[in-house]
Amino acid sequence: MITVDALPYPFHFDPESTAIVSIDMQRDFIEPGGFGATLGNDIRQVAAIVPTVAALLSWGRALGLTIVHTREAHLPDLSDCPTAKRMRGNPKIRIGDPGPMGRLLVRGEPGSQIIPQVAPLPGELVVDKPGKGAFYGTTLGSMLEAHGIHRLIVCGVTTEVCVQTTLREANDRGYECLLVEDAAASYFPDYHAQTVEMLRSQGGIVCWTAPLKNLLPITA
Ligand code: TIU
To answer: pTM score > 0.80 for this model?
Structure first.
């Protein structure tokens, strides 16, 4: 077992049973004109973590971890998008509508593609998810089971929405999870900080947290 200096206490993992899950690092959340921007958000907050996520993925690849990428993206006929989700808020364009990067939050459209700096390499797992959590409506659970994965090292966007929902889903399914604090971001820095604090409170009620610098010294 490898030990990471983490909060609220050290996190242990072995490379064979651990996956990095990189959540929704797609153009729709990070680039101008995407879903995140249409909701009125300042995308600079989330774009800032791209180099940190890239460094985390490089570290995980060198260590031989399983790498999973998720994308929040609906079927082209929107049959997996509840009307309630599509109608929520008051955006200029809605899920499925044409935008500067193709149809918003739809599978296969340019906006649903993971940005090049943190894109999947051949052989890495990619999960399209209709919800905020990566387990809901996907085969992620069975994929992880097939790979013998029991621990998840999690990064991506946004901390209090898809990252937090995925961590809670994973926790309820028995996975031990480490959130890499500076490899996750919210459009709202305060929400990020509060979510990190909340998740690791009460003795790590949902997960452990650590900054990337605590992982990088660990080498194969
Ligand atoms: N709006 C927001 O903060 N996030 C999302 O809608 N999806 C993800 O977090 N990926």
So the answer is: yes
